Amino acid sequence: MKEYCMYLRKSRADLEAEAHGEGETLLRHERTLMEYAKRNKINVTKIYREIVSGETIASRPVMQLLLNEVEQTIWAGVLVMEVERLARGDTIDQGLVAQTFKYSDTKIITPMKIYDPNNEFDEEYFEFGLFMSRREYKTTKRRLRNGIDASSKEGKWVFNKEPFGYKRKKLENEKGFTLEIVPDEAAIVRMIFELYTIGEEQEDGSIKRLGSTLIANKLNALNIPSSENKEWIPAVILDILKNPVYIGKIRRNYKPEVKKMQDGMVTKKRPRNTSDKWQLYKGLHSAIVDEDLFYRTQELLEQNKPKPIPGNRSIKNPLTGLVICGCCGSKMVRRPYPNRTPDAVICPKSGCKNISSYLSFVENRILVSLQQWLTEYKLQLSIENKQQINNTEIEVKKQTIKKLEDEISGLNKQLNNVHDFLEQGIYSAEIFMERSKLINEKINEATKKLNIAMKSLEEDNKTYKNIVEFIPKVEHVLAVYDSVEDPEVKNALLDEVVSKAVYTKTKRVGKDKNFDDFELILYPKIPK
């Protein structure tokens, strides 16, 4: 008997309707489609529920799983409330959905119409529906964006997260929010600006300005919590110093979403814009610092701005991104020295007690540790033993899959009999629905177990294959590493087989001691 699945997804309108108390959308849609399936003797054996709202297929994991199974011709058809629920993204996503259903000969079934992708007229109707849905989505998105821009111009706070020193406050007698000063936090904000711009008195009576790192250290020493009750870091201090919200302004276009194509996929990033690209509006909220202090701070920030790093600068540290500080968890960095002193590996976090070592010593320890690990790994897990264990496990899982497939086949026959009994008048509508629901639940449960078993079998095969390929990969890295001179190539080689190396050194050594007296714990990228 042909099997069908159901795809349920909330739209933006559904979320708004739920907010107004109109009930749970997915549950209502499930009932509607299930009733349709029973009336038309459609055997629904699986339900996909998309609980996240995403513009693209890449941001909807359940949709990705569904398309993968449609591509494998697992389903005769997919039940959905409207075709627009399948794809409302750009033309690439719409084309992907249309082509996947067409070439797998999978029908799209809605309460209003059944779409056969290989029927020329249905295909055109389907594509037109997706086009209109995309157009409606873009119109709604543009309307929302215009509303946000208008609210910003009116001085309202349009963001969900409030800046340190403020809390969100609902405006009285009108839509929207503004900001209300939190006195204790506002005092800390003023202190940050004053320490950076004016400074603090020293023991000798002089006044010294503090940089972002010293300010962060001072706040941590005073046990003053940040907005998320975490330690203060220089980046957070700089964000506060640059934010015009503290002089009563609303800043827009500070971190706009930028989309780029990378390896055939659309990626989203939010880089910080320079101040000349911001839109600033007078806010409804009160200022925490005066404008003279704020703009004096901006002048000092500009003077202390680091020189830009050339875009074509190559990697000089073969351990970039691999060595982790065992004291604070930061990624350790290379520090060059003049006068032919060897480069060192140090922790970049101010105040961390981890002591540096020569980079060459750390690099050599990683290679030695990798060789030791490989030797022990091959002893513990020989290919022959792994293959024997793997084959035994695979055979058991294959038998489980066969048993579940037989169980599902038997349940489908029962479901078919239920439909026959309804037509012959043996079952009433109530008994039919009760029996159908019971059998469908059993089918869904068995199908769920089957999918888990099949996925587990697939992962076992993949793991075994990865293990077989991983050992030669490590051997290759160890064999060629010393013959490579380019630090960037060395880094790429290590990154293939090493997840991280945790470095700890808490005792300083003299000139007559061993400079490689440190602890290093290696974490190879063992296939899972």
Keyphrases for this structure?
flat; 528 residues; 3 domains; single chain; Rossmann fold; three-stranded mixed sheet; alpha/beta; Hect, E3 ligase catalytic domain fold; five-stranded mixed sheet
Structural class: alpha/beta
Helix content: 40-55%
Count of β-strands: 19
Backbone CA Rg: 31 Å
Query: Helical segment tally?
Result: 13
Give the mean pLDDT: 81
Shape: flat
Distance between the termini: 37 Å
Q: Main sheet, how many strands, which sense, barrel?
A: 5 strands, mixed
Please outline what is shown here.
The chain is of the alpha/beta class and 528 residues long.
Secondary structure elements and their pairing?
Elements: E1 4-9, H1 12-19, H2 25-39, E2 44-50, H3 61-71, E3 77-79, H4 91-103, E4 107-109, E5 114-115, H5 120-153, E6 166-170, E7 177-181, H6 183-197, E8 200-201, E9 207-208, H7 212-221, H8 234-242, E10 249-252, E11 258-262, E12 265-269, E13 279-282, H9 291-303, E14 323-325, E15 333-335, E16 344-346, E17 357-358, H10 359-380, H11 383-424, H12 429-480, H13 487-497, E18 498-504, E19 519-524
Parallel strand pairs: 1-2, 1-3, 3-4, 14-18
Antiparallel strand pairs: 4-5, 6-7, 8-9, 10-13, 11-12, 15-16, 16-17, 18-19
